[in-house]
Amino acid sequence: MRTAVERALGVHRVLEPAGVLPQAALRLDADPAIGPDEVRIAVQRLNLDAASFRQLSEAAGNDGEAVRAAVLDIVGTRGKMQNPVTGSGGMLIGVVDAVGPDSPLGLRVGDRVATLVSLTLTPLRITDGLARWDGRAEQVPAEGTAILFARSIAAVLPDDLPDAVSLALLDVCGAPAATARVVERAAARSVVVLGAAGKSGCLSLAAARQAGAGELTGVVRNETEAAALRASGLADRVVVADATDPLAVAAAVGTPVDVTVVCVDVPGAEHGAILATAEGGTVVFFSMATSFPAAALGAEGMAADVTMLVGNGYTPGHAALALDLYRTTPGVRALIDPRVEV
Ligand code: NAP
Fold first, then answer.
1. Could you count the other beta carbons within 10 Å of the beta carbon of residue 304?
2. What is the pTM assigned to this prediction?
């Protein structure tokens, strides 16, 4: 018998290896029959984590059919959507269709929700073979069931935004919240965002501005993104550099800044981020493609006295902050809408 604490964390759903938490598990039990403290969601759409989707697409040579087959295979084998290479997942939206009598989540049958816990620990069963998805976009129309534990979190979807937009915003809502918190606590003036024209990147710029930073630099990978970011008005300065080329990033940024936020969806941005950051400054690694050894050994190797934070996907108030930044900041909408199939 599992204790209530273990059940709240979902340990009772772990099939292999026994005793680990669901996120570390190789396989989860995705049985749609719920326990008294669980909630079942009728799935409508998945949002695959950007780093995971990119990795799957590249591994499949951008063949959408092969990407779809790979996602079905992962979910079928693991009982959850956790990319074995990147380790990352994403999140989902759907409708609550069963609530156990002891669930503390405050959800009701019929609520339209987004899960704010990662797909990497969410028991998931797909029943439509992802027939409505062409394998070419991060958002995946899907039918099936997902299970929330007593300690999971979910947000009721807002009525004023398209679901696809809410899903995209809520997937990355940890980034603006983490950025705002760091800027406020450090009273930071200057901020660099790597991958600034992406979803989490543009939200982080807007959050940094709102939190009081005054010198915002966006690093993007090409002139097309630079033009879009300039037009958005979110950054004071836009520079083009490959985030995976540390010397190019350092040269493009110039004087190192108080806070650097890594929002690219590719590996290899650790050293450029460290070089872009001033002594005593902070790097927030929001990207799931970040390597802990590359960051830690890189900072040591450069004798860089920087604080390095793992971008926690959860900060209290993170969902509301991201949704509000989208509603109130035209530049954020201009950058996010084209990335989302509304
Ligand atoms: P996104 O919208 O795809 O944005 C990523 C941006 O980085 C894009 O503009 C991309 O440009 C740019 N980029 C890629 N390679 C680059 C390079 N070499 N140099 C400069 N820019 C480059 O992705 P997102 O949804 O914001 O996600 C960003 C990261 O956050 C991902 O790694 C994702 O895994 C992570 N994430 C973390 C959490 C968490 O809880 N910590 C939660 C969700 C997501 P192109 O569009 O031209 O490729």
1. 18
2. 0.92
